[in-house]
Design brief:
Structural class: alpha/beta
Number of domains: 1
Number of helices: 8
CATH superfamily: Flavodoxin domain
Strand content: 15-25%
CATH architecture: 3-Layer(aba) Sandwich
CATH topology: Rossmann fold
């Protein structure tokens, strides 16, 4: 059984990116599971707070989920042509202390996907993730890209994927990523 952990970079109820992850659970290949982790409850990173209080419980939960998974699937929104601050903050926290980076991220198969209301999907956000993921030592899957533009047409008001063509693209994307993980 291949276990993927998915993380949405949005905190919003009805988030399109959270909806994309939820839809992913329905189109996974046989023998693959997807656990959706959350960034909710992760405070802004503060080195002074880390020195005094250690790693917050929400961060430890996220780190353990990523470390124990066979692969990591990031569903990234795009805010102002880049990575959402709350999402980057969560990954920054998950890299603390630096001695844990290899355990949590080292050689971890990672795939990026995302959706946004704009016409270009999340091309800039996904590109902005590349140096971050390289620095963390992940094994980025480059075999496919999934960017869903004009999210308001593909998802309903509650964030549920309603577009069959996007669902099929998601199915193929996940099949490719799963094969990449299983080939390691």
């Amino acid at each position: 059984m291949t276990r993927i952990v998915g993380v949405s970079g949005s905190l919003r109820r009805g988030s399109y990116n959270s909806g994309l992850l939820a839809a992913a659970k329905d189109v996974l290949p046989s023998g693959v599971t997807l656990e959706i982790a959350t960034i909710r409850g992760i405070p802004l990173y503060d080195g002074d707070a880390e020195a005094v209080d250690g790693i917050p419980e929400a961060v430890t939960t996220l780190k353990n989920a990523i470390a124990s998974a066979d692969g990591l699937l990031l569903s990234t929104p795009e805010y102002n042509n880049g990575i959402p601050g709350v999402f980057k903050n969560a990954i920054d926290w998950a890299s603390r202390p630096t001695a844990d980076i290899a355990k949590v991220f080292g050689s971890k198969p990672v795939a990026l996907m995302g959706t946004s209301p704009g016409n270009f999907g999340t091309v800039l956000s996904q590109s902005a993730w590349l140096p971050v993921l390289r620095t963390l030592g992940t094994d980025l899957w480059n075999g496919g890209r999934l960017m869903v533009p004009q999210a308001g047409k593909a998802f309903d008001a509650e964030g549920k994927l309603t577009d069959d063509a996007t669902r099929e693209r998601l199915r193929k994307f996940l099949a490719g990523f799963s094969a990449f993980i299983q080939g390691k």
